[in-house]
Each structure stands twice: as C-alpha cells, then as structure tokens.
Amino acid sequence: MxxxxxxxxxxxxxxxxxxxxxxxEHTVLGNIDLEIKKGEFIAVMGxxxxxxxxxxxxxxxLDKPDEGEYLLDGKPVERITSAKRAEIRxxxxxxxxxxxxxxPRLNVIENVALPLAYTGTSHLKSIKRASAMLKQFHLNxxxxxxxxxxxxxxxxxxxxxxxxxxxxxxxxxxxxxxxxDSKSSHIILEELxxxxxxxxxxxxVTHNPDxxxxxxxxxxxxxxxxxxxxxxxxxxxxxxxxDKKVTLGSRSKSSKRSKKxxx
Length: 263
Ligand SMILES: Nc1ncnc2c1ncn2[C@@H]1O[C@H](COP(=O)(O)OP(=O)(O)OP(=O)(O)O)[C@@H](O)[C@H]1O
Ligand SMILES: [Mg+2]
Known about the structure:
The protein is α/β, with parallel strands linked by helices. The chain has one domain: 3-Layer(aba) Sandwich (Rossmann fold), CATH 3.40.50. It is built from nine helices and eleven strands. The strands form two sheets. The chain has a seven-stranded mixed sheet, with helices on both faces. The protein has a four-stranded antiparallel sheet with strand order 2-1-4-5. Strand 9 (about 215-220) and strand 10 (about 225-235) form a beta hairpin. Adenosine-5'-triphosphate (ATP) binds near residues 46, 51, 53 and 98.
C-alpha cells in the first residue's frame, strides 16, 4: 500500500468542495479518493455540472478543497506556501482552460510565451520557444494576430500551445478538443500522446468518447463523485490511426495490471 502511494503524483483522500452558503450550499466534489500515477493519461468524462472543471481547478492549485487531503508528489498541498504553489503552477503544470483564458491585450505569440515569463526565461528565448510551439500547431501565420481575430478552433490551439510551452510534467486539459473538427482533434491528441510518451501525466476532460481512445484510464464522474474508473491498454498507437483499446477492468481489477504494462 505504502509503495503504491509513493509512486502517485497526485493523491486525493476524501476531497470535498462546496459552493454557496446556507440553503444555497451545495457539494460539488463529494469525498473523492483518487490516486494518479506519474505518466498516466487519464480521460475524465461525465455530464455537464458533475464537477469536472472544479476537480481540475483543485488539481491545478487554482482552487482549494473544503475538506480532505491533496498530496502532490506525496506532499500535502495545504502546507505549501502560496509563493511555492505559484512556482509549482508555472514550472510543472500546464493548464488548458475550458474557456481558453487568452489575455485579450496580448497577441498570439505573447500569449503563448506568457507562462515562460514566470520561470525567468529571457524574452528572446521565450518568443523563440513560443514560435516553435505555434509552428507545431500550424499557427505560425497567426503569431501577431490578436485573440479576437482568431476562430474558435484557432483560439483553442493557441491555448493548448500556451499550456505546453513550459514543458510541464502535469497537463490538465479541460475539453481541449471541444471546438475542433475531428481531424484537428486527432492532431491535438497525437500531440498530447507524444507528451504522454515522454513520461508526463495528462488529465483530460472530454465529452467525446473517441478522444478517450488515447487515454490509458477513463474516469467518469457523476454528481461530484467518481462513478467508474477503468484502465485500458493501448494495443496500437501510431500517428495516423486511432488507437484501439482493450478494457482491462474496472477499478478493483485494474490494480492487477502488471508493473511492466504501466511502463
Ligand atoms: N464559482 C462557483 N460558484 C458556485 N457554484 C459553482 C462555481 N463553479 C462551479 N459551480 C457549480 O459547481 C458544479 C460543477 O461545475 P463544473 O464547472 O465543475 O462542472 P463541469 O462538470 O465542468 O461541467 P461542464 O461539462 O458543463 O463544463 C455546477 O453545478 C456549477 O454550477
Ligand atoms: Mg467544465
């Protein structure tokens, strides 16, 4: 038990989050227990309002739980100072927001370079790195556009480029393909798969079952709780085809999955 815990990058115990006060108080995340190992690619699904974004916000240190414990790399997040939390966010966590959150007064390349400003990277280096990211997402011709001049899909790709520019080891993506057509969605997912193959941890909210084929674990949420938790194995994983998956079992069975398979 102890050993399994020590390999968890994220560990939630009895995590509870409420909004509102008095009669209006409602529990958005109710008593969630969750272990996420380094290098997992998790898809989170569930109906609108079930708490997916709230969960990502807590995992990304943007929001605090009301009860329960969140251990990041085995350390209770609660005890981390706010300065250190900001540092962890800027160095380790890449966040693709559901609403994109591009800064309206900055152009595309400045938006993508923004996370690097918090890591002490020089301006020139940041712009070069941002430019390379934009090229990867076929947006090099839009570098000097303002956010309001982009289509929904382009805005989404800029938001993803920005989340990945600082090479984060944990990527939290809230419906990263929500505005994209099927082809663009698979391009984004292949990009995320590459990042996953390099050993990084990805937690992606999606409404699209096709997108879960890239994940090695699918969690469904219902009314602020984890409803199902299923591990799957990628049988085929090439750049041009959608991965075929084999369901290995639900939560209880999944622990039987061999270590070798996880690597
Ligand atoms: N700041 C807030 N104040 C009060 N209630 C909130 C707040 N943020 C979220 N909620 C409520 O918490 C619940 C879960 O919201 P959340 O955004 O996590 O859902 P979701 O699963 O991401 O939904 P969607 O699929 O529509 O994005 C909703 O009922 C929502 O109204
Ligand atoms: Mg949401």
